[in-house]
Amino acid sequence: MRRPFIAGNWKMNTDSNSGPELVKGIAAGLTDIDSVDVAVIPPFVYIPAAVEAAASSKIAVGAQDMYFEDKGAFTGEISTAMLKDVGCSYVLCGHSERRHVIGETDELINKKVIAAISGGLLPILCVGELLEEREAGKTDEVNERQVKAGFAGLSADKAAAVTIAYEPVWAIGTGVTATPDQAQEVHAKIRKLVAELYDENLASQMRIQYGGSAKPGNAAELMSQPDIDGLLVGGASLKAEDFLGIINASA
Ligand code: 13P
To answer: Fewest CB within 10 angstroms: 22, 188, 219, 242, which?
Structure first.
C-alpha cells in the first residue's frame, strides 16, 4: 500500500520567526497521526531553522529547488550535498513556477532529478498542464512529455526514489481545484505511463501527489481517489491549522 504523503510548499513565504513557529505548530498537532508522511518545504535560507524546529517530530524537511552540479562556480545555486548537509530529505524538481516563471526546461529538470537521487535526496517531480494546454486538449501530451523527460536515464531502482506531483497550473493559487475526477483521470494515466516506462510493480508503489488549491475542505475527497496518494499544498500549508486539517483528512 502507498502511504499518504502530504507536503507543504511554502514557496517564497515565511521568515525566521514564522517558519519555525509554523513547524512547531504542525508538530504539536501531529502527535497522534502515524499513518501519513509529512514534509515542509521552506525557502532555502529557512531550512536549517525548520530542521531544528522539526527535530524529534515526524516532520521531514525538503527544498524547493537545487542545482545538478556538485560544487564550483555556479553563483546563487545550491547543491544536493548542501541540502543533505542541513538536514533535507526531499527536493522539488520542476515546480511549475520554476518551469513557467523561471524558464526551466525538461532537460534541466531531468538533470536535477538524477543528481538529487545520486546525492541521496528524494525528488518530488512536479508536472502539470497550463490552462491553454488543457483547453487545447493537450493535457495528456504535456504530462506524458514531462514525466518521460523527468525519468529519462533513470534505472528502475533509482526511479523508485521519486514522488510525482501532478499540479495542473490552472489550479495553483487560483482557488480553482481540479475536481477529484479530473485529478484521478490524470493520476491514473501517469501511473500507467510509469508502468510502461518501468513495470507494474514500480508503478503500483510510486506515490503521486495532487497539488493545486488543496485545502482542508477538499482534501478527503481528493485523497479518496484510488490514484491520489498525497497532496502538495501551497497556500494552505502556511497555517498550521489548515495544514493539519489536510493531514487529518488524509489519515
Ligand atoms: P496552492 O495550494 O497555493 O494552489 O499551491 C499549489 C502548489 O503549487 C504546491 O506546490
So the answer is: 188
Question: CA-CA distances (angstroms) from residue 239 to 41, 218, 248?
Answer: 13, 16, 14
Q: Total domain count for the chain?
A: 1
Residues lining ligand 1, judged by CB closer than 6 Å?
9, 95, 167, 172-173, 211-214, 232-236
The CATH number assigned to the domain holding 233 equals 3.20.20.70
* 58-105: pLDDT as tens digits: 999 999 999 999 999 999 999 999 999 999 999 999 999 999 999 999
Please give the number of the atom of ligand 1 that sits closest to the Cα of 173. 4
pLDDT digits (tens, 9 = 90+) for 172-227: 989 888 999 999 999 999 999 999 999 999 999 999 999 999 999 999 999 999 99
214 closest CA partner among 227, 228, 194:
228
Report the half-sphere exposure of 180 (CA within 13 A, side-chain side).
15
CA of 175 to the centre of ligand 1 (A): 10
**With bands split at pLDDT 50, 70 and 90, how would you rate the model's confidence at 31?**
confident
d(CA 20, CA 31): 17
